[in-house]
């Protein structure tokens, strides 16, 4: 296995993603990542035992891009996984210092239910909110990260509405001051056990660029009915935004914000003939909106659909396969995974989710079925967990009817699904672990 780990500037701070450092030799062999059918590149983790100077340098690299590169990767970029540094922990044996991007927000709005408390009893004034406030220096480093805080009820006084806004603004400005930048903090302090002055253990957690979709809001006020792929493409290609009452607004119909880290290349979006209204003005994140669109399924086949942000920050949608993509055999002592179409070995660090893996010799006498997902010999990969040097654990996508639009629609119409509780797994069972894939 040959995998290099490099750090570059993130694509928002520097469009060319200028090279920062190749840290491969500093990583002590402990690294891993996960890839998910809903979201693509999800998380990554690596550890280093380095000098104090190198440790403090890593602490300043929150928000930088991380790329795991392999010459085996089929894409010309050589990427196995890419994302950005989210959290850095430093342990010298006596204290642990951490810094994280997880709670960084640099565009803050506050919504609340207004209360007129100049009358007895007080009267509810309706749902209200503040304009957005920005920390531009933070946005230049980390891209725009939205926080919409629900403040409950806010009262006023003699000039009720204006005072409610002023109080909302104070809450908003306090949150912006607290969360605009990642803070270093002592999470653990030990005394009496000794510490190391020569080296420190650095643990780094990363998130895929799909995470940006969870810190951006996207809504649409146009009621035009269009195909699902049309909406997805409009989200990815959004440009030329201004603001209106705290909401970023594009010409014509879109209320959202330009994506900082995800490519505007829409060629990875599969055509989907399912149609739905553009209207979506309920203060939901872009990721929530995309997940809801995926629940509609595929118009041509009626099968489930999945999405992910993969190499070069490109967005892809895929339809649930109807045939094997990978195979592995219980009788194969190498425990290799093969590409079912070419017969080539797929390295553990290149296995992807939203694909079907089968074990032909798991149940040799099983009745043949027309759909591979109706056999215990196969499952649809939901999560890939890779750990260096060559271990991969594959978890199936749960056959959860509550995630499908049809069921949600029936429940809205007054109906609900029924199922039987079975020991050990609710109504969703799981295949036994495949030998060689984390199951022994």
Verbal overview:
It is a single chain. With 440 residues, this protein is α+β, with helices and mostly antiparallel strands. Among the domains are: 4-102 and 183-211, no CATH class; 107-179; 216-314, no CATH class. It is built from six helices and 26 strands. It has helices at 52-59, 136-142, 160-179, 228-236, 286-294, 405-412; strands spanning 4-8, 19-22, 27-36, 38-50, 65-69, 79-91, 95-100, 107-116, 123-129, 133-134, 146-155, 185-189, 200-208, 219-220, 225-227, 242-244, 247-249, 254-255, 275-277, 305-309, 315-319, 326-327, 338-339, 356-358, 378-387, 391-396. The strands form five sheets. It has a 16-stranded mixed beta sheet that branches. Strands 8, 9, 10 and 11 form a four-stranded mixed beta sheet that branches. A hairpin with a 6-residue loop joins strand 8 (107-116) and strand 9. The longest helix has 20 residues, at 160-179. Residues 239-254 and 404-440 have low confidence and may be disordered.
Considering the chains and any ligands shown, give keywords for the structure.
440 residues, alpha+beta, disordered C terminus
Task: Pick out the low-confidence regions.
Answer: 239-254, 404-440
Helix content: 10-25%
Tell me, briefly, the overall form: globular
| Percentage of β-strand residues | 25-35%
Please state the average pLDDT score.
82
Report the count of strand segments. 26
What does the largest sheet look like?
Answer: 16 strands, mixed
Gyration radius, in Å: 25 Å
Given the helix and strand composition, which structural class is it? Answer: alpha+beta
User: What is the CA–CA distance across the termini?
Assistant: 22 Å
Number of helices: 6
């Amino acid at each position: 296995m040959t995998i290099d780990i490099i750090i570059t500037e993130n694509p928002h701070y520097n469009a060319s993603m200028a090279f920062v450092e190749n840290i491969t030799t500093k990583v002590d062999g402990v690294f891993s990542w996960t890839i998910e059918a809903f979201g693509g590149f999800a998380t990554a983790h690596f550890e280093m035992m380095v000098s104090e100077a190198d440790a403090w340098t890593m602490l300043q690299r929150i928000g930088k891009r991380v790329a795991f590169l392999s010459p085996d990767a089929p894409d010309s970029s050589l990427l196995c996984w890419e994302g950005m540094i989210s959290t850095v922990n430093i342990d010298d044996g006596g204290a642990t210092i951490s810094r994280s991007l997880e709670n960084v927000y640099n565009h803050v709005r506050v919504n609340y239910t207004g209360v007129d408390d100049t009358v007895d009893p007080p009267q509810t004034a309706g749902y209200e909110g503040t304009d957005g406030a920005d920390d531009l220096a933070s946005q230049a480093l980390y891209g725009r990260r939205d926080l919409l805080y629900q403040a409950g009820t806010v009262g006023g006084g003699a000039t009720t509405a204006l005072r409610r806004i002023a109080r909302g603004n104070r809450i908003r400005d306090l949150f912006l001051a607290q969360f605009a930048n990642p803070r270093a903090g002592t999470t653990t302090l030990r005394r009496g056990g000794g510490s190391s002055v020569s080296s420190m253990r650095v643990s780094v957690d990363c998130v895929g660029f799909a995470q940006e979709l969870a810190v951006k809001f996207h809504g649409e006020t146009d009621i035009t009915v269009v195909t699902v792929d049309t909406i997805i493409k409009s989200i990815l290609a959004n440009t030329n935004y201004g603001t209106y009452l705290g909401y970023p607004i594009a010409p014509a119909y879109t209320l959202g914000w330009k994506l900082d880290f995800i490519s505007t290349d829409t060629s990875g979006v599969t055509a989907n003939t399912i149609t739905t209204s553009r209207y979506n003005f309920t203060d939901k994140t872009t990721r929530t909106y995309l997940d809801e669109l995926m629940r509609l399924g595929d118009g041509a086949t009626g099968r489930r659909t999945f999405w992910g942000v993969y190499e070069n920050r490109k967005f892809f949608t895929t339809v649930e396969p109807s045939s094997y993509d990978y195979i592995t055999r219980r009788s194969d002592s190498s425990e290799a995974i093969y590409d079912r179409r070419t017969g080539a070995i797929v390295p553990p660090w290149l296995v992807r989710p939203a694909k079907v893996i089968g074990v032909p010799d798991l149940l040799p006498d099983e009745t043949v079925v027309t759909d591979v997902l109706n056999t215990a010999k196969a499952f649809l990969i939901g999560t890939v967990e890779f750990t260096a040097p060559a271990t991969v654990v594959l978890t199936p996508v749960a056959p959860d009817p509550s995630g499908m639009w049809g069921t949600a629609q029936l429940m809205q119409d007054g109906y609900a699904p029924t199922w039987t509780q079975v020991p050990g797994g609710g109504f969703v069972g799981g295949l036994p672990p495949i030998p060689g894939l984390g199951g022994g």
